[in-house]
Write a structure and sequence with these properties.
The chain has 83 residues and is α/β, with parallel strands linked by helices. 28% of the residues lie in helices and 29% in strands. Strands 1-2-3-4-5 form a five-stranded mixed β-sheet. The longest helix has 11 residues. The chain is globular, with a radius of gyration of 12 Å.
Length: 83
Amino acid sequence: EISEGNIIFVTNMKSNALPALCAKSKEKNMLIITERPNSCKDGSSINFLNDEGKLIFELCKDNITSCGLNVSASLYGLGKVVE
């Protein structure tokens, strides 16, 4: 249950709550961050992954903008942009 917040981190163990959180994030302009493969397809804005021992992150511009948020163009250069 989340009523207030700007950034919500959803652990892999709580990823079943992602659809409901993503729906709420659009109403409240919340940034959803996850750590599960393919989470951007499920509505996450930023998703952290382990890539051969390196921590990388994916960004989904559509999910970010649908929540009423903006991200610096330089951040897109640091992560992997996914659709």
